[in-house]
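Dear colleague,

Thank you for sharing your sequence with our group. We've completed the structure prediction you requested, and as agreed, I am returning the results in plain text so they can be pasted directly into your records. Please verify that the sequence below matches your submission; if there's any discrepancy, let me know and we will rerun it promptly.
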Amino acid sequence: MEDIGTTDVRQYLRGLAVFAGELPDFDPDAAPERPEVLFLDWLTGAVEAGVREPHAMTLSTVGADGTPSARVLLLKNVDRRGWQFAAGAASPKGRDLAVNPVAALSFHWPEQARQVRVTGPVAPESPEDSAADFLARSPGSRAEALVGHQSRPLPDVRELERATELALERVEREPGLVVPEWTLYTVRAERVEFWQADKQRRHIRLCYERRGEEWTRGRLWP
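Please find the predicted structure tokens below.
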């Protein structure tokens, strides 16, 4: 790709395969009444199909200055209350949610040509639930959270190595230690869209919208 021109890049990208392989069936008329039920069906289908890290999702937030930010992290749970993830309250995403408690989640399972988009307000769970989530993490993950300083400049990588060693030692000494700022968040979805690709570009889009505690659903133009 060295010294490749803009036109060549465009042609290169247009030549990449999309929607390769056999795609799963999706009948939106037979979809369940609630979006989390369909989501779990698609998620387990992705697991059974061998999709790598199917619980990985893009979390998008908006900062105090209106600048959007996106990053990939792991889904922790989904039920009638909503979709859950965890983060440090002092992290960039935590700070965004403190001033703009809304978020968008995007799931992409390319092997099945499926996407799910979730949007809605975000609320922190109780300190007890957040602590339980923290203690369920691996020792290395807990040490990482204990080190902190996420997204701040790192002038010397040796500082990170030393801080991580000290944090691991502390986690081993204090197995019940919980970082106070660690927070389990729930996205209370107001809108959930399911997208199933079609090789002929007759893509299927099914949108759920919340009406109080009930949901309406309908198809969208592709």
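Summary note from our side: The longest helix spans residues 157-173.

Kind regards,
the structure core
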